[in-house]
């Protein structure tokens, strides 16, 4: 009877270790998401282009092309056509 009890204790420990490992791995892979920061918005002025907006965000030495794509993705834009007064969500810096 003692021998059977030892086996069940080992099984219980093994199951506990397995469950805790899977739980920790699940949290690492699909854990809580980062808190979203404040959303930056930009109202399009007359004659303004995405290139100008992106250039203002990255500065004179940065490449505005990835920022333009990020702006288009964040706003669900199919084209780069802007309308005066349109509000754009800007990507996080």
Write the layout of secondary structure elements.
Blueprint: H1 2-30, E1 40-43, H2 50-58, H3 65-75, E2 87-90
Antiparallel strand pairs: 1-2
Number of helices: 3
The largest sheet has its strands arranged as 1-2
Q: What's the total count of β strands?
A: 2
Shape: rod-shaped
> Helix content range of the residues, please?
40-55%
Beta-strand percentage range: 5-15%
**Total number of domains:** 2
CATH topology of the largest domain: Membrane-bound Lytic Murein Transglycosylase D, Chain A
The ordered string of helix (H) and strand (E) elements is: HEHHE
Q: How far from one another are the termini?
A: 66 Å
* Unreliable runs: none
**Could you say which structural class the secondary elements and strand pairing correspond to?**
mainly alpha
CATH architecture of the largest domain: Roll
Calculate Rg over CA atoms. Answer: 26 Å
CATH class membership of the largest domain: Alpha Beta
Mean pLDDT: 83
> Sheet bearing the most strands, described?
2 strands, antiparallel
């Amino acid at each position: 009877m003692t021998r059977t009890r030892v086996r069940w204790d080992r099984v219980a420990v093994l199951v506990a270790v397995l469950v805790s490992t899977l739980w920790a791995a699940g949290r690492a892979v699909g854990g809580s998401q980062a808190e979203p920061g404040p959303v930056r918005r930009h109202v399009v002025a007359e004659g303004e282009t995405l290139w100008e907006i992106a250039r203002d965000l990255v500065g004179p030495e940065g490449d505005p092309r990835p920022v333009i794509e990020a702006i288009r993705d964040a706003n669900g834009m199919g084209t780069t056509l802007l309308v005066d007064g349109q509000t754009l969500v800007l990507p996080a810096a």
